[in-house]
Amino acid sequence: MVSNSRARAWVAGYCALLTLVIIGPLAGSGYLLLRDAVSTPRSYLTDSALGLGAAAPRAVPQDALLAVLSPVIDGGILVKAILIVALWAAGYGAAALARRFVDASLPAQLVAATLALWNPFVAERLLQGHWSLLAGYAALPWTALAAVRVRRALAPERLGAWAALAASFAAAGLTPTGSLLAAIIGLALVGRRALLPAVVLWLVSCAPWLTATALGSGAEPSDPAGVAAFAARAEPWLGTLGSLAGLGGIWNSEAVPASRTTPLALIATVFLLAIVALGVRAVWTRGRGGRTLLVIAAAAIVLPALGATPWGLAFGEWLVVHVPGAGLLRDTQKYVALAMPAYVLCAAAACQQVAVWFQRRASGTSTVAALFIALLVLPLADLAWGVGNEMRPVHYPGSWAQVAEKIDGPGDVAVLPGGMFRRFPYSGTAPVLDPAPRILPNDVLQTGELRVRGYAVTGEGNRARTVEDALLAGAPPTTLADLGVGWILVERTTPGPLGTSEKTLAATQLVHTDDNLSLYRVPDPTPRDIATSTQRRLSIAAHLLWATLLVTALLTTALRRR
Q: Do strands 421-422 and 412-416 pair parallel, antiparallel, or not at all (unpaired)?
């Protein structure tokens, strides 16, 4: 028998190895710049970073955290560190959950850790650049563990249990979606007596984005066209329901591993669901916690599938139009993450059950575990090494730092070419979000308009659209100045519409130019701040509350464990 401490060390090392295999290329120098993922050497605490810009606060408190820490620690290192910790924590948390809920042995815990890390959801979200969403994903098994501790804790243990739940909520709350995922798991398991204080605790962990939403930052309602554009997608040979059940089905067909476009997708899903099915009965009979997680998993698969049907799309469009903040629900596939805790429990229980069937409890469990791990890993082998080397660090040209230093006056920044996505020579073949909003010290105007699966999804940036239209039409600089624009940045190495903007540029002051970027000053911009000083103070206070909760809860949990 392996001692508990040695077993945990084995699990920790195994999860570290899997994490390294997955994100290997990112271990070198450089920055993560892939589709929605934008890490920069330095970012700034702008209104947009606080969630007070024209767009909905989808990256709060993530952007503010990077803005505060990046002057001390390089922003690229911060993002990679958070991603590495998140992946490791997802695997180790899955093993801990299996150990607690189904008394999983060491081999069975390794199966649980493998399933949590090596699945289509992780692969697709890495390729889409949703590194901070994976932090919320990683918090799910820890949230389940903490919620059950709160429900069962005796008086001497309650402080540690509540601290663990607070830490899980706050860590998941790096983005609004992660916060919602953790709330569903935690509030479902915490029990009726602790439900009200748990809700209050969760609301505190949501303070940054709830505050930004309540302050009415000027964002328009989300475009209902986004509901269909971001609906779950049927993968080959699987259909929508099968894709979701296999933890796949992201809306972007380009953000999938190559293996998911071949019959391997069907094979991988069959293997995964067979392993899970073998353990369902054991998990269901072990107690309330396991049953609750199984129900959540079923809902997390069925509801997004229904959301992709015609009537489901119609209902989603109604929500987006009539319910504030419902835009968070339009990417329905990401909620399939809620199936992960139940899946890992079933996989661990199945490993032990199959070993019992063969009446070889000790060595048999190791053999079955090795087989299960192979069945999970091999059909999705291209998750390894940066999802088939798609996730490679990039290096920004020095032009960006030079331009950031030159922006030393008031006014927002308008950017050319038009649009939000770029294809730089140094960023690879996939489109990437414009890094300008995170690398420049002033607010950068972005329309938020996206083109997804044939749909044109309008963003919330009404003033940004007006500015972009004026710039592409060659409007005089005074028009832009009246709209609050003090600077125009031309990104010269990426394709995109320029219109007749050369008329505007010819009448402005050229401040910097090189092969990559050109910066122009627009004289006498009229201040057009969306946020007031009071709103900024309230938002900063909300961010401080979240950070205090996270740090205090983590320290308390660590000290109580000691």
A: unpaired
| Co-location of 167 and 22 in the same domain | yes
- State whether 374 and 405 are in the same domain: no
Cα–Cα–Cα angle for 557, 8, 345, rounded to 5 degrees = 85
Nearest to 340 by CA among 164, 176, 138: 138
In this structure, are 229 and 272 located in the same domain? yes
In angstroms, the CA 553 to CA 4 distance is 25
Question: Do 409 and 372 share a structural domain?
Answer: no
| Segments forming the whole domain that contains residue 134 | 4-389
Running along the chain, 562 residues long, what does each successive block of 10 average in pLDDT? 83 98 92 96 94 83 97 96 98 98 96 98 98 97 97 79 97 96 98 96 96 72 84 94 98 95 96 98 95 98 96 92 80 97 98 84 81 98 96 96 96 95 94 96 88 68 88 96 96 96 96 97 87 92 97 92 70
In a domain, 300, yes or no: yes
Q: Check residue 460 and give its pLDDT.
A: 64
Task: Return the exposure string of 437-472: e unless at least 16 CB atoms fall within 10 Å of the residue's CB, then b.
Answer: bbbbebbbbbbbbbeeeeeebbbbbebbbbbbebbb
> How many separate helices (H) and strands (E) can be counted in the chain?
24, 10
Do residues 344 and 311 share a domain?
yes
**Token reading at 236:** 């080959």
At 197, list the tokens: 């204080």
Joined together, the tokens standing for residue 61 give 């408190």
Whole-angstrom distance, CA of residue 64 vs CA of residue 545: 13
Domain assignment present for 176:
yes
pTM, full prediction: 0.96
| pLDDT for res 204 | 97
Residue 488 — φ and ψ, nearest 5°? -125, 125
| Same domain? 195 vs 66 | yes
Q: According to the model, what pLDDT value does residue 226 have?
A: 86
Residue 39 and residue 29: Cα distance in Å, rounded? 12
| Terminal alpha carbon distance of the chain | 25
Same structural domain for residues 50 and 112? yes
Count of residues in the chain: 562
With respect to residue 331, please indicate whether it lies within any of the assigned structural domains. yes
